[in-house]
TrEMBL record:
GO CC annotation: plasma membrane; type II protein secretion system complex
Keywords carried by this UniProt record: Cell inner membrane, Cell membrane, Membrane, Methylation, Transmembrane, Transmembrane helix
Matching NCBIfam families: gspI, IV_pilin_GFxxxE
GO terms, biological process: protein secretion by the type II secretion system
Record's function text: Component of the type II secretion system required for the energy-dependent secretion of extracellular factors such as proteases and toxins from the periplasm.
Gene transcribed to yield this protein: gspI
The protein's name: Type II secretion system protein I
Every Type II secretion system protein GspI C-terminal domain range: 43-126
Family: Belongs to the GSP I family.
PTM notes: Cleaved by prepilin peptidase.
Subunit structure: Type II secretion is composed of four main components: the outer membrane complex, the inner membrane complex, the cytoplasmic secretion ATPase and the periplasm-spanning pseudopilus.
Amino acid sequence: MTTSRRVAGFTLVEVMVALAVVALALPALIMTLYQQVDGTEHLRDKSQAQLVAANKLAELRLLSQARGSLLQGEDSGNSELAGRDWSWLIRSSTTPVQSFQRVEIEVRAGEDNTSGPALYTLNAFMSSEIENTESTDAGE
C-alpha cells in the first residue's frame, strides 16, 4: 500500500512572486525613510536658526538700550549654537511710523552669510525712543 503524502510548503513560483513584491516595495520604503530623516534634519536646522535669530534680537535690544540708539543700516557676524557655526545678517530700516524701525535678521548655516537662502528670517519692530531705565534714587 502506497499512500501519497503532500508536503506543505511554498513552491518556487510562490517564492519568486514574494521576492518580486519585496523588491518593488523595499525601494519605496527606503525613499520614504530617507525623506523623513531629511525633513527632520531640516526642521532641526530651522529651529536652531530661529534660536540664533531670537538671541541676536535680544542682544540688539540690550545694546540699543545701553547705547541709547538703535542700529542703523546693516551688521553681520557669526555665532555658535549647539556646536555649529551660524552666520547672521541684521538689516535695520525706517518705517512709515516715525518712532519705529524695522529690523530683519537672516540666519544661515555655516560661516558664509551669503551662500544660499536664509534658513530663518526674523522680522521685528523696535521703538527708536529708547527709555533710560536707570534709577535716580540710589537706595535712598
